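Table S5 (text form). Sequence records supplied for joint modeling of the four-component complex.
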Amino acid sequence: MNRLEFIVEELVTANRILANEGIVDSFGHVSARHPDKPQHYLLSRARAPERIERDDIVEFGLDGSAIDERGRAPYLERFIHGAIYEQRPDVHAVVHNHSPSVIPFGVTGKKLKPLLHMCASIGHEVPIWDSRDKFGDTTLLVSDMAMGRDLAGLLGARPATLMRGHGATVVGRSVRHAVFIAVYLEVGAKLQMQAMAMGDIKFLSPGEVDKITARVNDYTLNRAWENWARRAGREMQA
Amino acid sequence: MNRLEFIVEELVTANRILANEGIVDSFGHVSARHPDKPQHYLLSRARAPERIERDDIVEFGLDGSAIDERGRAPYLERFIHGAIYEQRPDVHAVVHNHSPSVIPFGVTGKKLKPLLHMCASIGHEVPIWDSRDKFGDTTLLVSDMAMGRDLAGLLGARPATLMRGHGATVVGRSVRHAVFIAVYLEVGAKLQMQAMAMGDIKFLSPGEVDKITARVNDYTLNRAWENWARRAGREMQA
Amino acid sequence: MNRLEFIVEELVTANRILANEGIVDSFGHVSARHPDKPQHYLLSRARAPERIERDDIVEFGLDGSAIDERGRAPYLERFIHGAIYEQRPDVHAVVHNHSPSVIPFGVTGKKLKPLLHMCASIGHEVPIWDSRDKFGDTTLLVSDMAMGRDLAGLLGARPATLMRGHGATVVGRSVRHAVFIAVYLEVGAKLQMQAMAMGDIKFLSPGEVDKITARVNDYTLNRAWENWARRAGREMQA
Amino acid sequence: MNRLEFIVEELVTANRILANEGIVDSFGHVSARHPDKPQHYLLSRARAPERIERDDIVEFGLDGSAIDERGRAPYLERFIHGAIYEQRPDVHAVVHNHSPSVIPFGVTGKKLKPLLHMCASIGHEVPIWDSRDKFGDTTLLVSDMAMGRDLAGLLGARPATLMRGHGATVVGRSVRHAVFIAVYLEVGAKLQMQAMAMGDIKFLSPGEVDKITARVNDYTLNRAWENWARRAGREMQA
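The corresponding structure-token record, covering 952 residues in total, follows.
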């Protein structure tokens, strides 16, 4: 199996995992930077993540133009992916999702921060992008490169950003890394909502966040990936 | 397959989806306007949605009288459906349900409004119908055309209304459209309950609601429908 | 099939339903009055409800002595059942359970009342029995007839009572009726917790509770029973 | 089957149960003291609990050194287990987990106490270990014997301790006992969060906790174990 085939299989598994773990519903998507052409990325045609097969994966240029569309209609919001790959050479995978517990943070402006060691990878604090600030009344969908770049600008060097009334976007150095962060962003958001109702929260200290983040290696990611993949009816690739 | 057969299959799938997604339990129902006779509608005999088969679908006149009952006992609350079809020529499907998160809004009088882009189709604000206002102490069931018409009157041109101590009624231009709104009414209600506990909410602006609603096309509905149908063990019809 | 065989099958199905719907976990039990000997009742040997088979059902006298034990160890808390059958000739089935949402009401003393039409059968208000009031520090288990009769005394003519730090006990005129009330007691408790966090609650009026309760007939119970039984891998008996 | 083989099978079942009941996700672990060599313990190689097979179980000395590693990489946090077995001769099984409802207690400092009879085994009050108190900014992982012994010191003679920003550690006199307590620690934490939002809580009295704890025998543990094992696709060993 060559590198491209490997990544395509990873994306299929990633979609199934995100659906099975409740991080995406019928909407949301995950992409990977093309392993041989860093100015291209791979993303499914517009389809619910739980249903995605190998043949659904399309190659795109960073501007969102399909290289080999063959009638496979793209996601309108593919610009999220291209704009981030354009700005962040370190990023090799992007997840855009509407997982349930992140939404209340986006609409109330409460700061989402890591309180559990597993959640340190979400970053010291997750910013909130509001499409209305610069673009006014829209469908909230990131439907062109201008919106994508504005979102990527707020993301900056961070691993994740919320989107007001919409969801979140998470990035990683690999597909497994981005999926890991997306899952624990949801976990952390749910826990923080519960803890906020109980009293003042002792969040992870900045030093703890840095130490944990530095230690999240392939070993950690693979333990979760093997488990999530099987639960979603897929096998972990070697 | 003719248009009637198509709609009957859609209704079976809709019932299974609504049950599988937790929008109905053993109660609740979904109907479609008859594709050839706009003064008739199609609705299952009284049975739990998760169990409904093709042969359970009965044809009714708008007044709730069965055209071809053959021993299939009707839902007592079929008057909800007829009264809405009578008043709303644009409506081709109606869902009546008791999904869990809408109930607390109905009994506390808190206004349910869209805060997530996926929920814009529930309308700018969801009104609350209270059977007691006009009909006093009843079983709360919409058991005749007078109650149905009163409910339809409050619904007006809107896509959805809550019913105090009872549930919700949602309408759409197609079966897929009504199911989509019913699912995201539940999603939005759950999110709003959580966000209310956290602080002031930035709801979608009126302009955002209108722009998103205008963009919810077959393309959007089918992405969700394909996924929900498969999850419920059914296939999407072409 | 004779009446006894019918009831034994009903109890197996009831146990599976209560487990599958989350009303019991590995503990909790459901009994039926013997159809031919009103001074006897039928209850499983001590086993998790999800696992119970026909041969687990044992016949007991009202005082909790097994008629035909054959090595099948009884539930310690069988006295709940006998004490209620002794006092309430109208009762033909009893469910004792620890369903999650009823517990917070028992320990905070907040009154659980019906706010959804489906929950009217729980009664106008559910009392809370505290074993400590009369029996002091115990294991909280209803482990003899004195405790059972004290519980039955608080229950009085009602359909349900909570038990502080322990759970609930629900009665019905048939197995299906008691299971129906136990399920909607849990549903109502969860909804009331959510609604209490949002504001003042408009509960069902006394007149509404009475009207709905009078209308909960076999027709209603069977719609739910057919569905729950199938979900639990069982068929509804005719 | 000899005693060692029995315990290895118990551990496989325990891992599957903890995963299936939502007490561990892809992380967390359960160990048993070696039945023949009390200075050794048995613990899986580093793998998600839901995936663990018989051949994953490795034997360790109390200091965390593997006796027969054969390329099976150990959990970094195995020191939790050894430090507790070293200090507590009465303990024969240890569960370390991140079950969702215990986390908010650890980060808010609210005292988790039993309010349901099934939860008495968690002890009169669950202390909170904060790695930062003595070890400053770390990854929060218990990665050597010094940290393990500090945790064991706070645990003292108790059945459970929380760990700030991290999870919980639970001990028992057998694998079944430790799993039982870990499950009901999660159950109790969720209930207490809900009850705290409703009002003042009547917790179990100290006398009730002692009486119930004294009564949790094999009979009780096996009823739950048989059920949980089957739900996780395993059989209870005789």
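Note: Chain C touches chain D at residues 25-27, 46-48, 50-51, 73, 98, 100-101, 103-105, 107-110, 130, 132, 136-141, 164-166, 193, 196-197 (CB under 8 Å).
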